[in-house]
Amino acid sequence: MAHLISTLPIRLVDVDLNLIRQVAVYKTTKKMSYADCIAAALARFYKAELVTGDDDFKQLDGEIKVLWID
After folding, report:
1. CB–CB of 43/62 below 8 Å?
2. Which pTM was predicted?
3. What CATH number has the domain bearing residue 21?
4. Which domain holds residue 64?
5. Does residue 50 lie within any of the structural domains?
6. pLDDT tens per residue, range 13-67
C-alpha cells in the first residue's frame, strides 16, 4: 500500500499542534464534520485551494480559498 501511495501526486503532511488547534476552532465554531475541519485547516495552513462540492465549506467563505465543483 505504501508503494501505491508513493506513486500518486499526494503530499503527506505531519500533524502538529498549530494544525490541531485550527481544527479545534473549526469544530467548535462551525457545523462541519471532523474530516471537513481537517481539510479546511490544512487548506488554511498551507494557503491551498480546497476542491469540493460540499456546501458545508460555505461557512468558511473568506477564510479559505475554495474551488467549487458540481
Report:
1. no
2. 0.84
3. 3.40.50.1010
4. 13-68
5. yes
6. 899 999 999 999 999 999 999 999 999 999 999 999 999 999 999 999 999 999 9
